[in-house]
Amino acid sequence: MIGQAIADGLLTGAIISLGAIGVSLSLQILRFANFSHAELLTWGAYLALTFVSFATAGASLGPFSFGWGLLAAVGLAAAGTALLALIVDALVFSRLRSQGAHPLTLVFASFGAALILRNLVLLLWGPEAHYYTTELQIAIEVLPNVRMLPDQIFVLALACVVVLALHLFLRFSRLGMAMRAMAESPALARVCGVETDKVVRWTWIVSGALAAAAGVFSGLTVQLRPEMGFNLLLSLFTAAILGGGGSLIGAVIGGLAVGLSESLSVLAIPTGYKAAVPFLLLLLVLFFRPQGLFGAEERS
Amino acid sequence: MIGLFSYLVFFAIVVLILGVATLGLNLQWGSTGLFNAGIVGFYAIGGYAFAILCAPPRPELLANFGLPWLVGIIGAMAASALAAVIVGLATIRLRGDYLAITTFGVAVSIQLVTLNWESLTGGSLGLTSIPRPAPGLFESSLAANVFYLALTAAAAALTYWGLERIVRSPWGRVLKAIREDETAAIALGKDARLFRLESFVLGSTIIGFAGALYVSFIGFVSPFDFAPILTFQIWTMLIIGGSGNNKGALLGAVIVWTLWSASGTLISKVLPAAYQTQAGAVQSILIGLALVCTLLFRPRGLIGEEAVVSRHAA
Is ipTM over 0.95? Predict the structure, then answer.
């Protein structure tokens, strides 16, 4: 029972982590809480759905419920969602930044952007649930009494690969270093010759692509609904704040903590309250360690 | 003609109720700079507290006391105030966007409670036959609505007048000082956290009051009346009207609710029934566009804040 809850929690946690990385990047580099980030997850999932429907229904890959079509669709959806994030930035956020708007004005604007993006999904794809495939799968017993679908194992593995790749990118590439520098101190980064516009652009691209991956994985393991991203919003914020913003590993561990606590909570409290668990976790973190688990002690 | 008139009465009541909530938000954001992203949560607490206090008893439910209308209203305000004290004590020291995230979480959690605590809230079925004031007094429902319109107009006027007084009082000036420069206000010996907490609680109480007025008007309450969209709508009202200005808050309520209702009516006339759900999306998109465009092209809103508040300061 507990083993199964841990496995389920790790899966949800991996998906939340991918989304939370974007929230964390935007908190640190763009310096505002982006309430519209969760809608990028939804858009990623639905874009992939559209690409999959264009692909010819090829044979499924091995034990998985999907074929090469979906894998290609993930890539295309990541590109599409990154583009969408850039468009929203160009239309709204970058204009506000150049007007020297109050940081909270960007948060209001992200409210509005979220409302528009979410309802565009509803308008274009309709309110009913969608699925990538309707193929049935047989769960594999990965450990004694712990069963997972092949798709779930695939999602978990691919999430690990994506996080590892991002870690290497941030750690070793020039662009990654520039992004970390800007998270530390935008003014200092600019003085050192970091092209801040380019960093902002790449922040959106990375967050958008990861959000799309999170959205597709969530759609693959649960289902696609217009409010799928919005329902994850609180979890994403909790994971990002729990991790202490900025640090990638922080966001990932934050995401896993949120996923695990949600799925383990079902053992103790009624299922109906599961969605409040991230919020309780958030309150605890803000109360006892507002800088996050991995944040630096001093922050003003 | 009667149809149009009764529609206008209905419309005006809803606008006034939302206007009261927007006034409450204006105290929090406009005067104090507190980012409350959980408006709908406090609105729901007010609404449910009123319903629980005033609805006629039903054996399967814990509460439903069937108390008088005014007791219900006062109880609703007390419940919202209490919730705001608890939330405020935990969150008021947080910086702007963290406060927004936390209050957003409060609203989500409150909706979960209303959905799941069935013995108190009736769960997804909600609570019914919630009374209006003076139930037996009017023959026709139109007359009752006109009476209720007068009542909400009085409530809105009272809230407006009270807030205008408060903003211009020494207490209100401290709020603005804290919003503009917290460090300076603290240096002048003002307990910034206490003032922020007071403003948060008072604003949330007003929002709870609006929730109670709404539930008493509709006569029915369910978790689905308190969807997150309401928070966005009220924020849009304040931003469009002009935050920091109570007249702006009321004007914004009129404009946004007109936009929302008119687009809804138009869409339901034009589109076939099969597309009605999607049509609801267009309404929300319009609200989002209105919000974003105001921020981009007229950040201070239609009527922004007046620069001088005190006649002594001029």
Answer: no
